[in-house]
Specification:
By secondary structure, the chain is α/β, with parallel strands linked by helices. The protein is built from ten helices and seven strands. The protein has a single domain, classed as Rossmann fold (3-Layer(aba) Sandwich), CATH 3.40.50. Strands 1-3-2-4-5-6-7 form a seven-stranded mixed β-sheet, with helices on both faces. α4 packs antiparallel against α7.
Length: about 240
């Protein structure tokens, strides 16, 4: 995987969502102003890691655990958005010795309905991801800021059909790991107030399954918190992960 490491201090691993890459954290990192050692990978099949397809959560979690052992063997604070939030929960559940605390943003934690229909539609629509007009529509839904729009279009056009189907399939089948409730690191769960009911229900499920966690419902936010509320997210990171 391609990995960027910037800043100094406590190490934090930033896991991006599906269809984007590590650039999505730039608005948040600007507000953090180098206060942490930010470890920002491009997940398999995404961004500068597009040379390897996204195969499964299992494989990606194993790769991420190896990355932590290599660059921050004493463990990391962890923040994940959407697809990255699911990976963060898996890492905290399966490798708690590597995770000091977590911020879980917009993580779907129960299987989505109509999975077969969703995958059939995705197979039909997959070629559209390479069309700039379609990518721009998707970027608008995520509230991608203008200065990052080119990055989004590039990633959308570069994602392979295998990566798209595998990552979305893993996302919509995801269930909350049983070991999540045993994680002892401090955790904040965040969700936009305007997100889909499944996402809001998932946030409550993640929070209620972990004693001592904090739930933050972000007003006037949909599935776009890192882009529309980067200062708030940076504040949460400081509060939760500066330990």
């Amino acid at each position: 995987m391609h990995v960027d490491i910037t800043g100094s201090g406590q190490p934090i691993l930033f896991l991006h969502g599906g269809g984007v890459s590590g650039w999505m954290w730039r608005p948040v990192l600007r507000h953090l102003a180098g206060a942490f050692r930010a470890i920002v990978p491009d997940l398999p099949g995404h961004g500068q890691s597009r040379g390897m397809d996204y195969v499964s959560h299992d494989e990606t979690v194993a790769q991420l655990a190896g990355l932590i052992r290599e660059v921050a063997p004493s463990g990391v604070g962890l923040i994940g958005f959407s697809l990255g939030a699911q990976l963060a929960m898996r890492l905290a559940s399966e490798h708690p010795e590597l995770v000091r605390g977590a911020v879980i943003v917009s993580g779907e934690a129960r299987p989505a309905p109509l999975q077969s229909t969703t995958m059939a539609l995705l197979k039909w629509a997959a070629p559209l991801a390479r069309r700039e007009w379609f990518a721009r529509l998707q970027a608008k839904q995520l509230s991608v800021p203008d200065d990052l729009l080119g990055e989004y279009v590039r990633d959308s056009q570069g994602i392979s059909r295998v990566t798209l189907l595998s990552s979305v399939g893993e996302n919509i089948r995801f269930t909350l790991p049983g070991a999540w409730s045993a994680f002892h690191g401090g955790t904040t769960v965040m969700v936009g107030a305007k997100e889909r009911p499944l996402m809001r229900d998932s946030a409550r499920l993640i929070h209620e399954a972990l004693d001592g966690s904090r739930l933050v419902v972000v007003p006037n936010a949909a599935h776009d918190v890192p882009f529309t509320h980067p200062e708030l997210l940076a504040d949460v990171i400081r509060q939760q992960l500066a330990v």
